[in-house]
Write a structure and sequence with these properties.
Layout (H helix, E strand, L loop, with lengths): L1 E5 L14 H12 L6 E3 L2 E8 L2 E8 L6 H12 L3 H4 E7 L7 E4 L8 H10 L6 E5 L9 H5 L5 H22 L3 H8 L7
Parallel strand pairs: 1-4, 1-5, 5-7
Antiparallel strand pairs: 2-3, 3-4, 6-7
Length: 192
């Protein structure tokens, strides 16, 4: 069984913000695979279903971003999940262009407070993740204001493509094809 966690902040005011792309990917996976993510457990909204023949739990922590690890730890403990092979975390990344994705099997938090908190609660950095690019913050912009801001119409179009890529990558990862997913999505863009 896989637990797929999308990071974000609860409440209406954060819907559609850069920091909530993890929630957006979970919502789109839920819609595609007809999984209702409406049960409140482990400080998250969760839903159980099947993706590509694999049992999954989709989760949207309701702890606010900086405390995401509390919910993830509770889920892993309850379902006896091995984070190195059965956890997938999806979240925003300001170092990637809008809609670009990057897949990692492990790594540091890279300044992301949600991931920092998950690493602290898990006691390690080895768990698969999909980073979804939200674009670099403009100079002199406050990072918190930027990630809590909304996408422009042009950015939203790029993000729609990014969400599709993230869904496909998640489908590969739950089928134990993380290397294939990395080969497909981590390549550098060729210069035109």
């Amino acid at each position: 069984m896989f637990i797929i966690v999308g990071l974000g902040n609860p409440s209406k005011e954060y819907e559609g913000t850069r920091h909530n792309v993890g929630f957006e990917v979970i919502d789109r996976l839920a819609e595609k695979y007809n999984i209702s993510v409406d049960v409140k457990k482990h400080r998250a909204y969760i839903g159980k279903g099947m993706i590509e023949g694999q049992k999954v739990i989709l989760a949207k922590p309701q702890t606010y971003m900086n405390l995401s690890g509390e919910s993830v730890r509770s889920l892993l403990d309850y379902y006896k999940i091995d984070e190195e092979g059965e956890l997938l975390v999806i979240y925003d990344d300001v170092s990637l262009d809008n809609g670009q994705i990057r897949i990692r099997a492990k790594g540091s938090a890279g300044g992301h407070n949600g991931i920092k908190n998950i690493i602290a609660h898990l006691g390690g950095q080895v768990f698969p993740r999909i980073k979804v690019g939200v674009g670099e913050k403009p100079p002199k912009y406050d990072l918190a204001d930027y990630v809590l801001g909304h996408f422009s119409k042009a950015e939203q179009e790029l993000m729609d493509g990014g969400y599709d890529k993230a869904i496909h990558a998640a489908e590969l990862i739950v089928q134990d094809k993380i290397t294939e997913a990395m080969n497909e999505y981590n390549r550098k863009k060729k210069e035109a």
